[in-house]
Please model this.
Amino acid sequence: MKNKFVAIVAASLAAITMLGGCGAGSADSTAAGNSTLTVGTDATFQPFEYQEGGNYKGFDIDLVQALAKKLGYSKVQFVNTEFKGLIPGLLSKKFDMVASAVYITDERKQQIDFSDPYYPGGLSIMIPSDDTTISKGSDLAGKTVVVQTGTKSVEWLKANVPTAKIVEVESNNEMFLQVSSGKADAAVTGKPAAESYAKTDPKVKVVEQTLTTEEYGFGFRKNDSALKNKINGALKELKSNGTYDKIKSEYF
Model:
């Protein structure tokens, strides 16, 4: 009788354990659907990220929203942050990832991890439309060149044209306006954004020759490989099912 009682108790405990396990599994499977993906971005870099009518828009914005939807997140919260503050903000856990047309560089890899590349880029030169003196990087020697603080443009100029007079500003809009108004002789910035702005302002143009060939990636903390791997997997799916190309065609 005692053995029978013990067997009944053991069976009951096993059943409770199994039910508890099922409950936990169900919660795990719906976790993404009940959570928010927080993303740091500098929304001044059209066509990648910008604000219009109080809403976030751009290639990066739409792509991240599609990735989050694919992964089952219920919401994406964008945190508008100056570019120079994106990596510090990521490391201090102000957001889960960075999506802000960030070039994948060896220097940045020392601080954060990157997703697979999601768009090709490269640095270019923007100049006033009536300028005939600048057609390549070396022509920037002795010129006043405006760049955004914390970007690859600063590093490139210091390494390749040390005699350029570098003016650092906080936003892309300010950088573009300095060239348009004639306050700066040129700007060095990402080619896609430069070409996008030049289409809206007849006072500027983009030099045909590019300075570098690089790629953009999403940024993650080094100890968050799980999120990085999920984003990479979702990115591959969006590229294979046509969603990526559809989003890209809206901006490029």
Summary: The domain at 123-206 is CATH 3.40.190.10 (D-Maltodextrin-Binding Protein; domain 2). The two ends are 78 Å apart (CA to CA). Confidence is low (pLDDT under 50) at residues 1-31.
